[in-house]
Amino acid sequence: MSEYKVQNHAFGGSIDAELVGYADRILFPYEPKIVFFQTGSNDYVQLSGTDEEKIEKCMEYKKQMFAVFHEQMPDAKFVIMSGLLLPGRAEYLNLTLTINEELQKLAEETDYLYYVDANALTYDGTNFDESLFVEDMIHLNHDGQLRWYNEYIKSMIEQVITENGMDSVRK
Fold this sequence. Notes:
This protein is mainly α. The chain is 47% helix and 8% strand. Helix 4 links the parallel strand 2 and strand 3. Helix 1 runs parallel beside helix 3 (51-72) and helix 3 (51-72) runs parallel beside helix 4. The chain is globular, with a radius of gyration of 16 Å.
């Protein structure tokens, strides 16, 4: 991402509640113009209840989280990356697909949210592309990360910059 002014404040294995808890330290002080969120299965694999209950709890929290972040940073744009479809968590495939659909709907009805659908990166509708993952089949390998950036992330950065006159984000 050398063509952009980027700060990576991500931390692996986190859940939304941790993002909110650390926002005063890793997000708000930097006054970012664009914030990318990689949402994923960490939030709902630990929830109890039916899939419907997990979806409801997960989405309720995400809506609250984005509202709080928008309140603190009203000029920022937030990009939600779809939860990656993971061969190491194949039992959550349908749950992840449904949450991705709900996130897309949320972004479509919220003026400061954008959504990136990367479902096709790792899953063709029948099979997972295991060549994109490290051994745990949950985390992308270097090639997977490059494809994710080049085929999905970069075009969204450009869209957000263009639509919002944010040329200052480029180096």
